[in-house]
Amino acid sequence: MKQITTAPTSRTGAKVTTEELAATFHVATQTPRASLCRLGHWMGMRPVKLPNGRLLWDAAEVERLASGGAAK
């Protein structure tokens, strides 16, 4: 299995869990995880990976994409 290491974003702000992210976009929770594993991102977003393996996604990016904004 490929190990993914992501650096924390330089932006300070709120983060959302993978479950909250999936609920926002009406997808299964495995969808962003699988995309991150295969492509290194999901919809152009890269999460912060916590030591326990959980992922935290930038809330501002999630809201921007959910409201119809373009991926960076």
> How far apart are the first and last residues' alpha carbons, in Å?
27 Å
Main beta-sheet annotation: 3 strands, antiparallel
Total number of strands: 3
Average pLDDT, all residues: 85
Low-confidence stretches: 4-11
User: Helical proportion?
Assistant: 25-40%
Radius of gyration: 11 Å
**What's the structural domain tally?**
1
Helix and strand sequence: EHHEEH
Mind explaining what this structure looks like?
It is a single chain. Helices cover 36% and strands 12% of the residues. It is of the alpha+beta class. It has one domain (15-66). The protein has helices at residues 18-25, 30-39, 59-66, and strands at residues 15-17, 48-49, 55-58. Strands 1-3-2 form a 3-stranded antiparallel beta sheet.
Topology (SSEs and partners):
Elements lengths: L14 E3 H8 L4 H10 L8 E2 L5 E4 H8 L6
Outline of the structure:
The chain is an alpha+beta fold and 72 residues long.
What are the main properties of this structure?
globular; 36% helix; 72 residues; three-stranded antiparallel beta sheet
